[in-house]
Amino acid sequence: MTEESPAMSATPKEHRLLPGKVALITGASSGIGAAAARVFAREGARVVLLARRAERLESLAAELRADGAEAECVVADVTSAADTARATARAVSRFGRLDVAFNNAGYGVGRTPLHLMADGLYDEIMEVNVRGVWNCLRDELAAMLESGGGAIVNNASVGGLLATPVAAPYVASKHAVIGLTKAAAAEYAAQGIRVNAVAPGTTRTEVVGEWFANNPGIEEALHAATPQPRTAEPEEIAEAAAFLCSDRASFVTGVTMPVDGGFTMV
Ligand code: NDP
């Protein structure tokens, strides 16, 4: 086992954000999580990738290893406390500790008026977006207390800061993620653990691509409501998460950083 992933291409070694850090990334099989896996590894982290789709995880891990990184996969469901405990335990058994975590796994369906939403959708969304983060947080905090500190970033959404239309359970779940972030940040700050959140605006992932395709005009409408009039790329969210996980954000805790081109500013 090396202390730091060697030879990751773009960032010179002395400037890397996460040199030698052991990082757990949930929801790493696609979208923002997969981008985070690439960014964190490039920044020197040894990564543990969690999601349910094994093939996607394995193929991403193979890509990262081919680039010189150390990567482990844990096929797991964040709604299961046993699964999230297994992921943290894998990080510790494989790499000796857990330094940072990006709790990104999440689920956003809806686009239906609240009174017409299917029964059960509320529970489904809360299970993944809130219980999932809760399960991860408990294990990660315990592991970080063991190793003397760490940094956690939860993936919220602009929907955690304001009410985006026709997505009530999603909005409620992401407000809860921000609440959990603040609660954990306050509780563990003195013990050397920072907890922050990112709040992405609309980001070009597969699910969002499908949403745009099925709703002509929606992308243009979103751009019109965004001071930087475009859709975010997954890497832009991953970069913000990497910064907040890094020692360069050493006095930042309990914040939710919008990564939204100014959407929540106006
Ligand atoms: P994707 O659907 O591409 O990614 C979601 C990831 O979460 C997948 O890797 C999926 O993996 C994983 N996941 C979902 N449910 C579970 C579960 N129960 N257990 C473990 N893993 C799970 O979406 P995005 O990349 O777009 O979204 C990632 C995060 O960013 C979410 O929290 C989302 O709410 C947030 N976000 C996204 C925005 C966007 O516009 N794209 C805007 C604001 C916030 P698998 O299916 O293999 O388990």
Give a structural overview.
With 266 residues, the chain is an alpha/beta fold. The protein has a single domain (18-257), classed as NAD(P)-binding Rossmann-like Domain (Rossmann fold, 3-Layer(aba) Sandwich), CATH 3.40.50.720. The protein contains eight helices and seven strands. The protein has helices at residues 31-42, 54-66, 81-95, 121-147, 168-188, 206-214, 218-224, 234-245, and strands at 22-26, 46-51, 71-75, 100-103, 150-155, 193-200, 256-259. It has a seven-stranded parallel sheet with strand order 3-2-1-4-5-6-7, with helices on both faces. Helix 5 links the parallel strand 5 and strand 6 (193-200). The protein is globular, with a radius of gyration of 18 Å. The site of NADPH dihydro-nicotinamide-adenine-dinucleotide phosphate (NDP) has 30 residues, from helix 1, helix 4 and helix 6.
Cα distance spanning the termini:
48 Å
Assigned CATH class: Alpha Beta
Structural class: alpha/beta
Oligomer: single chain
CATH superfamily: NAD(P)-binding Rossmann-like Domain
The strand count comes to 7
Mean pLDDT: 95
Name the helicity range. 40-55%
How much of the sequence is in beta strands? 5-15%
CATH architecture, please?
Answer: 3-Layer(aba) Sandwich
Question: What order do the helices and strands follow?
Answer: EHEHEHEHEHEHHHE
